[in-house]
Amino acid sequence: MKLLVAAHASELVAFEDDIPGFERLLTGVGKIPAAYALTRALCEGEYEEIVVVGTAGAIDDAIEGGIYDIAAAIQHDVKGLDGTFGEHVSLPTRVETGHEGRVIATGDHFVDDPEAVRLIRGLGAGLVDMETYALIWVAQQFGVPISVLRAVSDRAQDGATELWDVVVERCSHELRAEFRERYGV
């Protein structure tokens, strides 16, 4: 059995409630709800793979709309003891999925201004979201393989919050098509 994971119900609007070979988990938005929900699920069940779907903001001008595999995640809302932006006091700076793809920066706020984008770009990320780092980290603690597919919903600039509400359904349909192609269901 595999586990299909998304943060927000609207990201799964194009996905049927029952998909053969998959159980479904809705985590809630942000790192703490995501970590809690996935930890509970992995304590209660055994899964051969975690498949995360959802949206992300693009902060790299070379990244257009579409679906992207995530190779690694960093955090953009932490600082180390020495004040280094993007470093946590005890967690790894970067967590990896083991797949080829993009680096995403995770944080507990919706990125929608040019100054934040500039700072986060400096960490080496091309996308931003609010859960991926936590989900990869938890999967690693349990030794469960994880794949993360993110659909670009916005450019993470002024107005991105309002735009997300408009485009999330389209993103869900794009993710469902990619999911069907990869998993055959």
UniProtKB/TrEMBL annotation:
One GO cellular component term noted in the UniProt record for this chain: cytosol
Pfam family, one: PNP_UDP_1
Gene3D superfamilies (UniProt xref): Nucleoside phosphorylase domain
GO-annotated biological processes: L-methionine salvage from S-adenosylmethionine; nucleoside metabolic process
MF terms in GO: adenosylhomocysteine nucleosidase activity; methylthioadenosine nucleosidase activity
The Nucleoside phosphorylase domain, residue ranges: 99-165
Protein name: Nucleoside phosphorylase
